[in-house]
Design goal:
This protein is α+β, with helices and mostly antiparallel strands. Among the domains are: 73 residues, 2-Layer Sandwich (Alpha-Beta Plaits); 77 residues, no CATH class. It is 36% helix and 14% strand. The strands form two sheets. It has a four-stranded antiparallel β-sheet with strand order 1-2-4-3, with helices on one face. 4% of the residues are buried.
Length: 222
């Protein structure tokens, strides 16, 4: 008896009809996945069968091997109510294997027409005008402080200009003035290495002191 070739996977799809869905399914751009895989952001009560039937009936896309993942959001507070901690709703992602490949279109080189950068700058300006400190600004300040403390403990400071480092990395020759600047910076680095950490910190401190120990008078004066 001749064997019957099977070229496609046989999966029974549902017949539930949805005319006006009250949920939102968003396809997420994931450059790390292959063209035969796609990732979706789905509601928390969404099942694998719901996504499979939704893609088939709405877009005629057959998918297999669906994997789901619920991402728990970190605990955070708000600028309106500081120290009032809460956990935002979790996000559910599903990764599907499609029968036909799909490749995301390339991003445009100029995104000014969509106002992406302009919208972010307007939001930052409005927050700065209202005296609102966003979480991103807090992270940037904390990162800058960590880098300063690390440079202080390791007795490092940005002595050599970035332009000189870039020219040396590219293999270009330095001018006599730039060679002199590099020599002075290397000498300063050698002096820092021979110096104790306490003496190095004493030289780099700003001289500002706390005005009072009272928590209501935590101000800095020169």
């Amino acid at each position: 008896m001749d064997a019957i070739p099977i070229s496609k996977k046989l999966i029974a799809f549902g017949s539930k009809k949805i005319y006006l869905p009250k949920f939102t399914v968003a396809m997420v751009r994931t450059p790390g996945l292959s063209p035969y895989h796609a990732r979706f952001l789905v509601p928390l009560d969404f099942s694998k069968y719901d996504l499979r039937d939704y893609l088939y009936h709405a877009y005629n896309v057959k998918c297999f091997n669906i994997r789901s993942y619920v991402k728990q959001m970190p605990i955070r507070d708000t600028t309106q109510q500081p120290r009032h901690w809460f956990r935002p709703d979790s996000k559910k992602y599903m990764t599907v294997e499609m029968e036909q490949p799909f490749v995301w279109p390339a991003l445009p080189e100029d995104i000014k027409a969509w106002g992406i950068g302009q919208q972010k700058s307007e939001i930052d300006q409005a927050a700065e005008a209202n005296g609102i400190v966003t979480m991103e600004q807090k992270r940037q300040k904390a990162k800058s402080l960590r880098e300063q403390v690390k440079a202080l403990l390791m007795k490092r400071e940005p002595l050599i200009e970035k332009s000189l480092v870039r020219k040396k990395r590219e293999g270009r020759e330095l001018t006599p003035e730039e060679l002199q600047k590099e020599e002075v910076a290397l000498q300063k680095q050698a002096e820092n290495e021979r110096m104790s950490a306490l003496k190095f910190w004493e030289q780099k401190r700003t001289g500002k002191v706390v005005q009072a120990d009272d928590s209501s008078r935590y101000t800095i004066k020169a």
